[in-house]
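Hi R.,

Here's the chain you asked about this morning:
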Amino acid sequence: MAHLGKEMTEAEIDAHVAVVIPCFRAARSIGDVVASVPTYVKTIVCVNDCSDDNMQEVLDEIAGFDARVKVVSHVKNKGVGGATVTGYLRALNEGAEILVKIDADGQMDPDFIAPLIAPILEGDADYTKGNRFFDLEELRCMPTVRLVGNAGLSLMTKMTTGYWDLFDPTNGFTALHANVARVLPLKKLHQRYFFESDLLFRLSTVRARIVDVPMAPIYGDEVSNMSAVKTLLSFPFLHGRNLFKRIVYNYILRGFSAASLSLIVGLPMILFGLIFGIDAWVEGARTDTPATAGTVMLSAVPLLVGFQLVLNFLQHDVASVPGRAIHKRVARLSALKSARAPEAEITDLAASRSAASEKKRA
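And here is the predicted structure, written out as tokens:
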């Protein structure tokens, strides 16, 4: 395997690497972003997510100069997640083997694509993502609000996905093997800013191997379109929903084990201990009667035993982070799904492009 460094030449990578760029209100920066994509990238899919600036004209001009650029236009804004999925589907149609997603605002250095895809090319990962928290010195340039927010989101994402070794879950600089992309329910992914976390959850349901790759953060004058209030209100609910789904999928439907039993028994015991104890305490306070030793034990023992069982489950969950890449094992299933029919999805893309062209002519 050739060294995957910054000076990598096109000849050193024989895989079809495609870069997907969701484009919204970034007409001023998209040209520089596309121009800086390395030559070993064979396809660049730019998805105009119904941007309200002159994005379409800029993308059409860029595509005229760079044959790698494929432009797909939405007639209705779908959000960063929806645009990324559209880009994934077009890249798969182009025969891509590795799907790299970067943003259009210039905050991601395309030179990082080489180290990002290296673990996938070497067979060590199915999905890789940047981690801006690796170098403590680099964190000084990260805004404090974003630093604290990412720490909290990282903890929630670890619990939701079971990838306890990952950090910086909202990092949008990612790479995904095409075989794994084809076995994921891409159409079910969240279409807005929860997309990255939701994709991690979906990857956990197929036990894909994920690797964090250290990267340096880049911050300019760009203003994020993500609302902090909406994030605080919606993300905890979405994480809770995915946590419930993961436990049902991985510990009941697909792999019932001693850890499953620990959780099923432990949670009701904790609930019983808390309810019984609180009820006994309220009744004792109302009647001014101290609780008997038996009453205390009947509350404390289920609580302690249940807590221990849940800890056993967590210990098993932390220890069972996927350690092997699956993209070779799912290659046959991926080929079968590819042959069967992203026909509806391909039709959607064609209709989207056709509608955009008609709108432009009008």
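One quick note: DSSP finds twelve helices and seven strands in the chain.

Cheers,
M.
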